[in-house]
């Protein structure tokens, strides 16, 4: 029997056990291939089947319209912070960024490095990123090249509950930390990018959905690897892709489909998150970071009455097999990351632990 | 019993069976950790131990001097084609490239895109890349920012047998396809980069050795992810690294050390390559592509009397469990890639097959 603990890490994060077991079973030799998936050529039929099967499952899960390309890139969201403005912002142009936490702050900073104007269209920083701005708070420039949002802020635990209306300006989203945790209306976005290591696959692959019409914006002078057109043209096989991460993503997509798709995933995630948010709301001991209306289904952030108690909480939780609960150093407190693959029993165990801890120290 | 065939693929390529078996055993739960290596945080102690252990093994294997940094990046050699000139070539500067095959051609083309001058210091293209230039053929500019070479050309099967003398100009190498296939004199190079998927690890990680003094050249304006300084400063943990590929690389490095290090690897590779080159040289049927003095130990390229016979050869070899022998479409013919982890028995099987095929069709 393999010992496994509950892993509340913000990413890389927990994967479905069934996926891990299938990957393990076939790791030395893929059935019918006679090589490990770690060894197969990215130009082989076996890999063609994997990457095409993965894309087909993604399109099915998210209902991706035909005028969108699905790309498997490298470098994570951090590389996309640069690729988006390099490709989508014309010389002398500007883009609007909505700043809702640490990750959107990083995104706008990188866009500003590209040498064009990346403006902050709204920010909740003065409120310590406890919420997402309302539609009427967004100061959007109709001339902007695009509007950029971060659908879920992993560190602060706030999540957009609506797709903002940009009045026709292309909308770009970093969806790294809640992609496929709920249904997604891809057609409202010109580009969506997601590092895989939270909800999709092991670290090492970045999933991009890009609408066909924005491809024409990329300047000819871009480095080949940083031009979305390269990867569209060569179907993510311009150079060697991260084969194993794509293989595991395919297994995760299959697991999602077999378990009812994104609607069912959202229901499970709502149930799980409610267990912890209820434990917070029913107590005078715990204090949630995010405003209730903007609470993340993926990252539940909360504080205890003192930093000493928070340390104690993390330490005792770890001993109880509840790992990775320490909040990000920039926010402090506790963060429970409960992505798609996080089991409900683990959330129940945390809710019980919280009540027990409050009884002891409250 | 797991069925495994002989995989002559140029990359991703064969990995040591012992490494695959260890990765398989621990895939669902790392001993003492209780999570899969696919799920652990890159900020965890478990991963610290993996990445630091990997670097320590690399430094030991290659005798890397203390003034070099070891980086684990993403994007493969193709991304390095741009990162090298972006970081090392000052505005208005130039660099010298030695062109010995398809990969160095790609490297110089990308450098020219950056907007500076990347000159061809020597090329063997007119001879169809059958050899590497001699020292006296290199037209090197002493004012160049650096000189770039490709230590082994995967497609053409030619390999540098000497470190060129650049008269003090920093030497940069793409060593993707022969890294650690033989001892490497890192101290002669300012920067060495290698995609992992041939000799080091599964696809998804790029190994970079960079000498401390060249770091000062990177312009402040570079995108954060494309600046070597970012990854030096954060020890390859600025963003989420490809955790699993680094984990497997560590196992491969341990395997190399346990099997006598790089000198022993070179001896094994020489023995393996000799079996195929002897089969070529002792026949009037097969014709080697590379000149004998510059033959690659990693990629053995040869032709048959006709393209029809080459097709027949590949088809019959595949049926005999010898996979991936078709040469790259730009060169044609046969290519047997026999990296460090390729077993000697597989090379013997190919040599026997070649003799048998010649008897039948010669």
Brief account:
The structure is a homodimer of 362-residue chains. The first copy, chain A, has 362 residues and is α/β, with parallel strands linked by helices.
Structure keywords:
homodimer; 362 residues; Aspartate Aminotransferase, domain 1; 7-stranded mixed sheet; 3-stranded antiparallel sheet; 9 helices; 35% helix; globular
How would you characterize this protein structure?
Two copies of one chain form a homodimer. With 362 residues, chain A is of the alpha/beta class. Chain A folds into two domains: 18-258, Aspartate Aminotransferase, domain 2, CATH 3.40.640; 262-361, Aspartate Aminotransferase, domain 1, CATH 3.90.1150. The first copy, chain A, is built from nine helices and 14 strands. In chain A, the strands form four sheets. In chain A, strands 2-10-9-8-5-3-4 form a seven-stranded mixed sheet, sandwiched between helices. In chain A, helix 7 (261-281) runs parallel beside helix 9. The mean pLDDT of chain A is 96. Chains A and B meet through helix 1, helix 3 and helix 6 of A and helix 1, helix 3 and helix 6 of B.
